[in-house]
C-alpha cells in the first residue's frame, strides 16, 4: 500500500475511530487558540481587504464570516483563515513547521455550517485533518521553509482537504483526488513574511483544501500517488532531492505535539525572547552592556538578519532584535507591543544597539543561548532549550485562558469552547 493509499484509508476510517478524551480536549484547546487569535485580529488590514474583496459572495450561503454576515463555505474559509493568521499568534506544528489550526478550523467550521454537521463531527474532522497534514509534513517543514516555501500554505491545504473529506464522507478514491487537488495548489513564499500576504496564505490554504474536496466530490480526478516518499510533490518543493516524505504511521496522536504561542510574533523569535526574560530575573537592564544571542540557522534566516528597526507592525513580528528589545523593556509581547506606537517607543530607547544575533548549528527551532556582558566587566550566559508553548514546556488551559482574556475577554464564549463537542447544537460561530 502506498503512502497516499494509507492516508486515504486513515481518512475513510475516521468515523469508526476511537478518539481518546485527551485528544478531543486538546482539539478544544486548539479551537480556543483559533477563536481568540481570530477575534483578536478583527480590524487587521489584511483580513479587511480579503473580506471587502469577496463581498460579492457574501449572503450567498450560511457559513458565518467573523467580520460579519454569512457566505458560501469557500469564501468563509478564505476570509476566516486569513483573519486567524493576521496576528501571527496562532499555533504551530513544529515538525511540519505549519500553522495548522488557522486554515484547518476555518475550513472545517465553514463546511460544518454548510452541511449542518454536529460539533462531534467537526472535532473528528479537525483531528483527522491535523493528523494527516502533520504526517505529510513531518520532518520536512524546516527544510521546505529554508528553500523559501511557507509550509502553512502547503500542509494547511492538505489538512483542510482531509477534514472536508471526513465531513463529506467521501470514498477512498474521492479522498485521493481531493488531497491531490489540494496539494497541487501548493503556494506561499517566505519572502512574503512581514506583509499581508502571509496571513493570506492561511486563508488560501483553507480555500484550496476545501475546493479540492468539493471538486473530488463532483468527480474531479487528480494525481493518484501525490505523497510518494520520493515523488513529484516533495521533489518540487525540495528540488535538490535532499529530502523525502516520511512513511506514514498513524500509531500515535501528533496533535498532542502541537505548540501554542505565548508571544504575538514569529515562533522563531521565541527562544531568544525567553532567554531575555530569563536574564532579567538575575540582572537589571541598567547592568547590561552587550548581548550576543545564538539562534538556530532557520531563525537567523527568517528573523535574525533584520535591523531591529521595523517600520510596520507586520515587519516587527519577524524582527529578532526588535522582539528582544521589546522584551528587554519588560514587554509581554502581546498584540499591543507590535503597534506603531510601541515600535516608536522601542526605537527611542535604542535597545537594539545592545543586541547582536548569530546563527549556531547547536541551536534548533526551540532553543537559543544568550551571552550577556555586564557593565562591571563580568559575563553571564542564559540558555533556553525548549521555549514556552512547546511540548516539554507546554501551555495548558490556565495559560490559554490568560491569552484568551487578553485578546477577547468573553467568559460566555470561553465556556462555549470548553464544552464544544458535548452534544450542543453547533452555534459557536454565531456567538463570535
Structure description:
Helices cover 50% and strands 8% of the residues. It is an alpha+beta fold and 432 residues long. The protein folds into two domains: 3-262 and 393-431, 2-methylcitrate dehydratase PrpD; 267-384, 60s Ribosomal Protein L30, Chain: A (2-Layer Sandwich). A hairpin with a 4-residue loop joins strand 5 (368-374) and strand 6 (379-384). The chain is globular and about 70 Å long. Helix 1 crosses helix 9 and helix 8 runs parallel beside helix 10. The termini are far apart. A four-stranded mixed β-sheet has the order 4-3-5-6. A two-stranded antiparallel sheet has the order 1-2.
Question: What features would you highlight for this structure?
Answer:
single chain, 432 residues, alpha+beta, 2-methylcitrate dehydratase PrpD, 60s Ribosomal Protein L30, Chain: A, 2 domains, four-stranded mixed sheet, 19 helices, 6 strands, 50% helix
Q: What characteristic shape results from the CA principal axes?
A: globular
Order of helices and strands: HHHEEHHHHHHHHHEHHHHEEEHHH
Count of beta strands: 6
- Could you please say which CATH topology of the largest domain applies here? 2-methylcitrate dehydratase PrpD
Radius of gyration: 21 Å
Helix content: 40-55%
Q: Tell me the strand order in the biggest sheet.
A: 4-3-5-6
What does the average pLDDT come to? 96
Number of domains: 2
Q: At the first level of CATH, what is the class of the largest domain?
A: Mainly Alpha
Describe the biggest sheet? 4 strands, mixed
CATH architecture of the largest domain: Orthogonal Bundle
CATH superfamily of the largest domain: 2-methylcitrate dehydratase PrpD
% residues in beta strands: 5-15%
Q: Cα distance, first to last residue? A: 44 Å
User: Pairing-aware structural class of the strands and helices?
Assistant: alpha+beta
